[in-house]
Amino acid sequence: MKTLSHLFESNKKWAESIHQQDPDFFKRLAKQQTPKILWIGCADSRVPATQICGLDPGAMFVHRNIANLVSYRDLNCLSVIDYAVNFLKVTDIIVCGHYGCGGVEGAINQNYLGLINHWIHDISETYERHHHDIQTQCKEHKEKVNRLCELNVERQIENISALPVVQKAWSEGQKLNIHGWIYSIENGLLKDLGHQSDKIADLPKALQLNFTNP
Ligand code: CO
C-alpha cells in the first residue's frame, strides 16, 4: 500500500522547525482556536489561505470550495459561517477569489462537466446578469474570465450579507465586516476589490430581514 511517506517526512521537518522558532506554538494552539477572520476561498491548490497571507496555523478559520461560492443549499459552507459568526465571533469574513479560476471559466465556456455544471450554475447566472458589460468591456477570453472572477466575488458578498445568521448578528450590534478580495496566481499578490458590507442597510431592500416584533 502506498503511504505517501514523503509527506510524513516533510510534516516532521515542518513541525520541528516551528518548534525551534517558538517552543510553545503547538501547546498554545492545542488549547483553543481563536481566529477573528473567516476565509472563504477557492479549493484551487495554488491558493492556500493562511500561507498567502503570511499567517500561521490558527490565524484564520477557513472554508474552501470550487470557485469560492456561498450557496444557500450548501450545508457545509452555511455551517462554517454559522460557527464563525455565532461561536468564534469573527469580526471579518473575507471572500477571496483568484484570477484564472477554472470554475469561473467553466461557467463562461458552458462545456458539459457533469456534476460541476450544477455547482457553477450560480456563476453562470452572474455571467448572464453582466453579459453585456463583460462582452463590451473585455476583448480577450482571459480578460472576460478575470472580470467574471471579480463579479463572482461581489456576488458572494451579497449572498453572505443576506444570510439570516449574518443579518441577525448585525441586528444585535455584532461587528462583522464582509470583504471581497482577489488573488493573482501570476504574482502572488492579493487585491481588495473595494466592495464591503458591514450592515443590513448595505443589502438591497428586498433582501433585508425584519427583526422587529410584529
Ligand atoms: Co478557482
Produce the secondary structure layout.
Layout: H1 5-21, H2 25-31, E1 37-42, H3 49-52, E2 61-65, H4 75-86, E3 92-98, H5 102-109, H6 115-119, H7 121-129, H8 131-137, H9 141-162, H10 164-171, E4 177-184, E5 189-197
Parallel strand pairs: 1-2, 1-3, 3-4
Antiparallel strand pairs: 4-5
Helix pairs in contact: 5-7
Plain-language structure description:
The chain has 214 residues and is α/β, with parallel strands linked by helices. The protein has a single domain, classed as Carbonic anhydrase (Beta-carbonic Anhydrase, Chain A, 3-Layer(aba) Sandwich), CATH 3.40.1050. It has a five-stranded mixed sheet with strand order 2-1-3-4-5, covered by helices on one side. The longest helix has 22 residues. The site of cobalt (II) ion has 7 residues, from helix 5.
Briefly say what this structure is:
The protein has helices at 5-21, 25-31, 49-52, 75-86, 102-109, 115-119, 121-129, 131-137, 141-162, 164-171; strands at residues 37-42, 61-65, 92-98, 177-184, 189-197.
Features:
214 residues; alpha/beta; 5-stranded mixed β-sheet; 10 helices; 5 strands; globular
Number of helices: 10
Strand order of the largest sheet: 2-1-3-4-5
What is the level 1 CATH name? Alpha Beta
In the predicted model, the low-confidence regions spanning at least 5 consecutive residues are: none
CATH superfamily: Carbonic anhydrase
How many domains comprise the coordinates?
Answer: 1
Helix content: 40-55%
The second-level CATH architecture is 3-Layer(aba) Sandwich
Q: What is the rounded distance between the termini?
A: 64 Å
Structural class determined from secondary elements: alpha/beta
Shape field:
globular
Q: What string, H for helix and E for strand, traces the elements in order?
A: HHEHEHEHHHHHHEE
| Estimated radius of gyration | 19 Å
What fold name goes in the CATH topology slot?
A: Beta-carbonic Anhydrase, Chain A
Count of strand segments = 5
